[in-house]
Design brief:
The complex is a heteropentamer, with one copy of chain A (249 residues), two copies of chain B (283 residues), one copy of chain C (257 residues) and one copy of chain D (299 residues). Chain A folds into two domains: 33 residues; 215 residues, MetI-like (MetI-like fold). Chain A is mostly helical and 249 residues long. Helices cover 82% and strands 0% of the residues of chain A. Chain B folds into two domains: 181 residues, 3-Layer(aba) Sandwich (Rossmann fold), CATH 3.40.50.300; 64 residues, no CATH class. In chain B, the strands form two sheets. Chain B has a six-stranded mixed sheet with strand order 6-7-8-3-9-10, sandwiched between helices. Chain B has a four-stranded antiparallel sheet with strand order 2-1-4-5, covered by helices on one side. Chain C is an all-alpha fold and 257 residues long. Chain C is built from eleven helices and no strands. The longest helix of chain C has 34 residues. Chain D is α/β, with parallel strands linked by helices and 299 residues long. Chain D is built from 13 helices and ten strands. The chains are: A mainly alpha (249), B alpha/beta (283), C mainly alpha (257), D alpha/beta (299). The interface between A and C is large, with 54 and 62 residues. The structure holds adenosine-5'-triphosphate (2 copies) and magnesium ion (2 copies). The site of one magnesium ion (MG) has 4 residues of chain B, from helix 2. Chain C: It is a multi-pass membrane protein. Chain C: Belongs to the binding-protein-dependent transport system permease family. Chain C: InterPro entries: MetI-like, MetI-like_sf.
Chain lengths: 249, 283, 257, 299, 283
């Protein structure tokens, strides 16, 4: 387990080194990609100067709000859809094809609804991430072994107690998987919207740097996002695995 | 005071005494979703479970054994006829009944200890009493070293013992077991059977055991009910006449072979009949 | 064996989505009425716009442009994804090392990498296809690998006892065994590579639905935006519905208990 | 060949090219332009050009300067458009804002920081002698987003640009238009790479010549030209006509010759928004060798 | 010409004849990934399988029965000692060996017919010959009405019969069966046992059957090998002395009870020993 993680790390490092070398030898043009060492330098400049602190904070806040909304609403919707056979049959065909439609193009609609501020961005991110939570919630509830519900009946638990003491913990690992995906999609939603649509946040900062040929800054910011997402993802992944292993029978 | 002492009531009664549970003309039909067709799964069944007896049920797969257990546990109402427990008609799950299901029903998010204590906590019993009962049951089921383990860390047989312990601590007066050792190999089953007998002797509860294993049925029970293929009916109910301090060593007894032979004779025709129709099974 | 679907059963599967669609359209109309000066186009106006669009040759040029990029992206995602998935599954240690990298890549906001893609592939079709593949390839790879690693070992042991060659094992055991998972993977790859292509078109392109949508956004032309949205949604739902029922049919047939 | 024009189809920068394609002027000049790649503008256009087989295109001057500053190997080979007349500032019809002065202490929506919209707005303020620090500029992300903010009361006025402002002219009242207020300045330029300039001077000359014929055709017959633009841009003909006619008077399209005065004006504007700190060394950036003989001189 | 005739060789031989397969001092260690520790799973084992005999193996769970089968099938090499089949050392899967695994190994994406024909197609046998052999095997296994069905539409028992048929058509001279009826209830197992006996009598192949069921072992085999807990060793090999035309009715024979009793006696201690260590099992 540990060993494998080390090998993975080594592979990543080897790729980075190869890129560094390719840049140093001039195999790739500096206008295309800058050496990783410079990306790191740029990143540390960005962090030290505090120039982007506001953008970073804004983006993180938006991601967090989106995560909270999509997890909470996704859970409630998932439970509701699970409870009704009709709703379920109604929703399933759409869930399957949901991601094919680029939510971004409805941005003008959202700014009409929510105004030109973070709310519209958050709405897009929520739209993107809530589906993962709904699906995971339904999946989790589906997979509660019926024998556990029968056991609850034998113990004469009330429906509320059954929900809290049996259904919730039994499906919790699946809920967590959904929550984890929601976090990933919230990141994607917020940063992509900023990149494409807004005049603010980290996504915009990258787009701006790109437009103004500030490759150094652009790659510094990209590195920041890659590192942040990787860290968050790895942490949640580890928790996720731990939870899932409990279910393994 | 131990669980045993608390649970113990009078010794097994003669047939004249009121039965622990009783089924009269019970049938069960399943309705298929959509179509109006129904499946006649069980009955009509007439059966009295005597106070404190060990009754086992064998029958071909799909003959309605689990359905019978559902009716007794109050999990599903009979389509026809009446079911009663301790003289009162069964509507909903009655108090005093414990069930161990065929599938592993241990809660994977709780430790062994917490699993066993789960029902007691719900019943609002004091902590000291809970501790005592859990302690006893965990020890009795040979799980003492695994109190803090989670089910995922146990073998299938140990998880099934957790479920038995969880049922046991509630001191049910009627214990229903649906093929509880299905996941185990035969040798381990026989040993678990010994533990079950010991348990039964100590608690004096009435036990109904559903099993696929003829040895198990013949070795453990006071009476063995042999069911026909679906719709399940009792085609024979055999009194074993074993002493109550029996254990798995009686498999070596020649009378034991005779007994299984007799049950097998009854079942053979039924199973053959059943196998010809089992192609496109319901699951 | 496709089971005979009773008319009642078919209705139960078709009616609810349609009812939901109608409810959504009603909500949409409600929003239209509620927002000042109809800032949100009505369903009727959107439909009218869609009809106009579909009557224009230009629109179909866009569709063909997007469709071509999408087809390339999808085919390449599927072929490369399955190939890579098989390799990563069969070379177990390599797969285990690569998996976390792929998972992380999957959860990256890939638009941030768009500048890089443009810088490498230049503009137009190759960049769009590359962007589609960036979205679609990884899920297919991961699902394929997962399906193979979770294949019951007894299938491979059976093949071994029958003394099949490695090639034969892949061809006649591994691939047939994971077909349901492959279809599921393709379904997700389908959605994501379409998304990738459209996002790609939104940046730099002269044609394509993504470009037209972004153009309409610049002009604040909500009718067109909604019309394109509806068109894409219809396409996605229908195509996915087809794949979904294919997947169900396969799973139904071979649901190994 | 395919060339790149910033904001193709969305704004009139590309009108000469559209007309030239329609009339077959490029073929006459000896080059076959088969397609035009549009883009959202700014750096994307420059990158698009760098990534093309025939690296030629017309981009915003600011973008060309930014690219050159970052060491990208580009040269400016002709001037493109020379006005910001299509820009305006609008408010709601019932608003109390009547002039720029009324905006002091209020909020105004621009598209994004350092954008052309901000530059034009600041130049207008400078022309009127208003202290820019007294008006709060809000980045909305785009023109339509700005309008939405305006309608929702989040700002008191919003920048706008043709043809959008023509489409929406009934819904908003113009506070001030750049047309007539701000002088001519070089807003877009034709660029290529230094390598291509060495390798294929003939193609560049042909491109410039073809485009010049398009410009001449526009001024000769604006209405006919607008129909051609509408066709190429996939734009409503009526809208194209109004937009094109609006730009005849300020002489939006240059035939290609550079004007130091107009170049320096845009330089000052960019200084105003903080995009650059000193006027660029135009001499090092410009290569006049592809221009026809009569346009080589500074105008 | 039927499968039977083709597969039939001479009648079972005396022990003096060269054995069908033979293990000499075979052990098997598993290496844990990462650490250098190894698990001693099996042996040392010395065993000669006589030509045409029916040999069954019982032993506590995890004692190395499947490992033994793997070695015989050439799926994994012994760590020590030598294994040979028909006089030749086993390296890789030898020709002429058929295996039916414990788990359901029917291919869910193929019909019953295509499943049975699978191995034949790979072996490059002519279509007419394939049809004939499949036809015979499908009929023999009672699957004629389900030729076009997919495994998902069959019960567990029928799927296992598909696997047996698929192995059978290849006409192996040594058939290894690893708990082939594990998924079935005991009644069905006994009936499947009858079919297995019939098969063995007709093909005259050598059969090694691993089972958890003492009845099954005692009823089916010429010899029963009883294994110890891990590392598995043969603690006893019992000659049953049954006639070759036996069937499941011998469970009623008093000598049968005696036989199972004897096996059970041997196993009881082993199983008890094993249960104490089975907590955190490897799976
Ligand atoms: N909820 C249900 N709806 C429809 N049919 C059912 C349902 N539950 C059981 N059946 C059918 O009723 C019959 C009896 O089922 P039951 O589970 O009682 O059999 P069983 O004897 O317990 O079988 P097994 O030995 O395999 O556990 C079977 O044919 C089964 O298919
Ligand atoms: N690939 C492996 N790597 C490590 N240990 C293994 C492996 N396969 C089996 N073992 C271990 O070797 C021992 C013997 O395993 P084996 O499967 O042969 O037992 P078995 O007698 O067939 O058990 P069962 O009756 O449960 O099928 C077990 O303790 C098992 O955990
Ligand atoms: Mg049952
Ligand atoms: Mg085994």
């Amino acid at each position: 387990m540990k060993y494998r993680a080390l090998v993975t790390l080594a592979v990543v490092l080897a790729c980075v080194l190869a890129l560094e070398l390719a840049c140093a030898l001039g195999w790739v043009a500096r206008t295309v990609i800058i050496p990783p060492s410079e990306m790191v330098g740029s990143l540390s400049d960005i962090l030290w100067s505090g120039e982007f602190n506001r953008a970073i904070l804004l983006t993180l806040t938006n991601v967090m709000i989106s995560v909270v909304i999509s997890i909470a609403a996704g859970f409630v919707l998932g439970v509701a859809i699970h409870a009704s056979d009709f709703l379920r049959r109604a929703v399933e065909p759409y869930l399957a094809s949901y991601y094919a439609v680029p939510t971004f193009i409805f941005y003008p609609v959202f700014i009409v609804l929510f105004g030109v501020n973070s709310a519209a961005i958050i709405a897009i991110a929520v739209l993107l991430s809530i589906v993962a939570m709904i699906t995971a919630t339904m999946n989790g509830l589906d997979r509660i072994p019926t024998v556990l519900l029968r056991t609850a009946r034998i113990m004469r638990l009330s429906p509320v107690k059954t929900a809290l003491m049996i259904q919730l913990p039994a499906a919790a690992p699946y809920f967590f998987t959904g929550a984890r995906l929601s976090v990933a999609y919230s990141f994607i939603g917020v940063i992509a919207s900023e990149f494409i649509l807004s005049g603010d946040g980290l996504g915009y900062a990258i787009a701006y740097a790109y437009n103004n040929f500030e490759n150094r800054q652009m790659y510094g910011l990209m590195l920041l996002i890659v590192i942040a997402v990787t860290l968050v993802n790895m942490t949640l992944d580890r928790l996720d695995r731990r939870l899932q292993s409990r279910l393994r029978r | 005071m131990t669980v045993v002492a608390m649970a113990s009531r009078d010794a097994p009664k003669a047939a004249a005494e009121p039965p622990a549970a009783s089924l009269k003309g019970v049938t069960r039909h399943y309705r298929f979703p959509g179509g109006g067709k129904t499946l006649h799964a069980l009955g009509p069944i007439d059966l009295d479970l005597r106070q404190g007896e060990f009754f086992s049920v064998v029958g071909p797969s799909g003959c309605g054994k689990s359905t019978l257990l559902d009716v007794l546990a109050g999990l599903s109402p009979p389509s026809d006829g009446t079911a009663s427990f301790e003289g009162k008609p069964i509507a909903g799950v009655p108090d005093g009944i414990g069930v161990v299901f065929q599938e592993d029903a241990s809660f994977p998010w709780l430790t062994v200890e917490a699993n066993v204590a789960f029902g007691l906590k719900r019943a609002g019993i004091g902590q000291a009493e809970i501790d005592r009962r859990v302690d006893y049951a965990v020890g009795f089921m040979g799980l003492r070293d695994f109190r803090q383990s989670y089910p995922a860390q146990l073998s299938g047989g140990m998880r099934q013992r957790v479920c038995i312990a969880r049922t046991l601590v509630l001191q049910p007066r009627l214990i229903l077991l649906d093929e509880p050792f299905g996941a185990l190999d035969q040798q381990t089953r026989l040993i678990m059977g010994d533990e079950l007998l010991r348990l039964w002797r100590e608690t004096k509860a009435t036990v109904l055991l559903i099993t696929h294993s003829l040895d198990e049925a013949a070795m453990l029970a006071d009476r063995v009910g042999v069911m026909s293929a679906r719709p399940g009916l009792f085609i024979d109910i055999i009194e074993t006449g074993w002493p109550s301090d029996r254990d798995s060593r009686i498999v070596a007894d020649p009378r034991f072979g005779e007994m299984t032979g007799r049950i097998w004779e009854k079942l053979r025709a039924e199973t053959m009949k059943h196998m010809q129709t089992q192609g496109a099974g319901p699951r | 064996m496709p089971s005979k679907t009773l008319p009642g059963e078919a209705l139960r599967n078709v009616v609810p989505p349609i009812v939901l669609a109608l409810v959504l359209i009603l909500c949409w109309q409600g929003l239209h009425l509620a927002t000042a000066s109809g800032a949100i186009s009505s369903p009727a106006a959107t439909l009218a716009r869609l009809v106009v669009l579909m009557g224009s040759g230009r629109f179909w040029l866009d569709v063909v442009e997007t469709g071509t990029a999408f087809a390339w992206a999808l085919v390449l995602s599927i072929v490369l994804g399955i190939g890579l998935g098989v390799v990563l599954a069969l070379l177990r240690p390599v797969g285990e090392v690569m998996e976390p990298i792929l998972v992380t890549f999957y959860s990256l906001p890939k638009v941030t990498l768009y500048p890089l893609v443009l810088l490498i592939f230049g503009l137009g079709m190759p960049a769009k296809v590359a962007f589609g593949i960036m979205h679609g390839l990884v899920p297919i790879t991961l699902l394929t690998r997962n399906a193979i690693t979770q294949l019951k070992p007894v299938y491979l042991r059976t093949a071994k006892v029958m003394r099949l060659s490695a090639f034969e094992v892949v061809r006649s055991v591994v691939l047939p065994a994971i077909i349901p998972e492959l279809v599921a993977g393709i379904r997700i790859g389908f959605s994501l590579s379409l998304l990738g292509v459209l996002i790609g078109e939104m940046f730099a392109s002269k044609r394509g639905l993504g470009f037209t949508a972004v153009n309409a956004m610049g002009l604040g032309d909500l009718d067109t935006i909604m019309a394109i949205g509806v068109f894409l949604a219809l396409f996605a739902v229908l195509a996915n519905g087809g794949l979904l029922s294919l997947e169900r049919a396969i799973r139904h047939r071979s649901a190994g208990r | 060949v395919e060339i790149s024009i910033t904001q193709w189809g969305a704004s009139l920068y590309g009108a000469p090219v559209a007309v030239a394609i329609e009339q077959g002027d490029f073929k006459k000049a000896g080059i076959d332009v088969t397609g035009v790649i549009g883009s959202g503008g700014g750096g994307t256009s420059v990158r698009n050009i760098l990534a093309s087989d025939v690296p030629y295109g017309e981009v915003a001057t600011a973008a060309a300067l930014a690219a050159a500053r970052q060491g990208l190997p580009i040269v400016l080979i002709h001037s493109g458009t020379r006005t910001v007349a299509e820009a305006s500032l609008v408010t709601m019809p019932n608003s109390e804002i009547k002039s720029l002065e009324d905006l002091v202490g209020k909020k105004v929506a621009i598209t994004s920081p350092k954008s052309t919209s901000e530059m034009v707005f600041l130049m207008e303020l400078a022309a009127k002698g208003i202290d820019a620090s007294k008006i709060q500029r809000i980045a909305s992300g785009g023109y339509t987003q700005g309008l939405t903010m305006l309608e929702q009361g989040a700002v008191s006025a919003a920048v706008l640009i043709e043809p959008l402002s023509i489409l929406r002219k009934d819904r908003y009242r113009t506070v001030i238009a750049a047309k007539g207020l701000l002088p001519a300045m070089t807003t877009s330029v034709g660029i290529t790479t230094r390598d291509f300039a060495k390798a294929k001077p003939e193609q560049l000359k042909a491109l410039i010549a073809g485009r010049r014929m398009g410009v001449q055709a526009i001024y000769r017959a604006p209405e006919a030209a607008s129909d051609m633009v509408a066709k190429q841009f996939n734009m409503d003909p009526g809208l194209a006509k109004v937009a094109m006619l609006n730009m005849i008077e300020p002489q939006m399209w240059s035939e290609g010759a550079f004007s130091m005065a107009e170049l320096n004006r845009i330089g000052e504007g960019l200084k105003l928004v903080g995009e650059i700190s000193a006027l660029p060394d135009w001499g090092a950036l410009i290569d006049r060798s592809f221009l026809p003989a009569d346009l080589k001189a500074d105008q």
